[in-house]
# Entry
Amino acid sequence: MPKRKLDPLPSAAFQILLSLADEDLHGYAIMRQVAEQTGGRMRLGPGTLYNSIQTLLEENCIEEIKPRETEGSGAERRRYYRLTSTGRKLARAEADRLGELLRVARAKKIFRGDHV
Amino acid sequence: MSERIYTLLLRFYPSSFRQAYGDDALQLLRDRARDERGFISGLRLWLDILSDLAVSILRAHRSAPAAARVRCHDGVPLFLSLEDEALDPDSLLYGATATVLIYGVVLLLAQHAGVPLPIQALGPAQLSHYSEAATGASSSTTAGAANCPGEIELPPPPAPTDGVAPPPSPDSDFFRSQISTIVEGQLGLKLKAGTGPVEMLVIDHVDQASEN
# Structure
């Protein structure tokens, strides 16, 4: 049985799915959104970003949508990506897994006061 | 300038990736260069780009479609290649040049570090020995003796100056220098000067064996 590319879900792919949860974004906006939601700890480079986007597209977790009408033409026209229902399910499953991990960590009392 | 460098770096990615996302990656670099101005920001941008390149190139090649990496001729796969487009003739030239340079540098470093090499340069004495051994078959008929690879050949004594060739003494400088040349040059041994007792077997005469 072939191994799925998103099992386990790479951190970059999960962050991209989260960044697209609210709105459709183009590549650079995804990168900025990921940097914002991780507090600047993760800055996706072009290679990692588009590798992950390619994988997510192949697995139908995101889809490419037509450029917005308000976008410029020619070289400035960007490709926008949208989260699909499959992608949302995958993100939810990963969030649940991390939530469960968090619950275990809390039960083991390994957190300091701020996170409890 | 940055875009040109990054365009060159993009060539490390598989062509399928470049065709699909090359322009977008370049656009992302433009966006970041526009928003992150200044020396420190520019330095951080390029550190990000280079570290991202090191991590993502292998992943991009691994995830490139396998069908595109196999060239087929009449249904028979010819070879696997990381690149899924025809090789540029310039690439072959660059590859050959890079190979020669890398090989030369490795050999130079190995020689410098004293690492035994799989190839060995022949000295003048060895070259002379083997060249004469190669031509020995033709010259042996006239010289009267065959040159075998294991045979040590004594060089001729110095030419007489007055027409009469005196036999060289075993203690002469000529013999010492020739013995040193043979032992060190042809046998690869090292001579060390010293004094001490030496056991010798002297045959003073030989009689022919009788029929009984």
Observations:
- Helices of chain A lie at 11-19, 27-37, 46-58, 85-107.
- Residues 85-107 of chain A form the longest helix (23 residues).
- Strands of chain A lie at 25-26, 62-65, 80-83.
- The two ends of chain A are 41 Å apart (CA to CA).
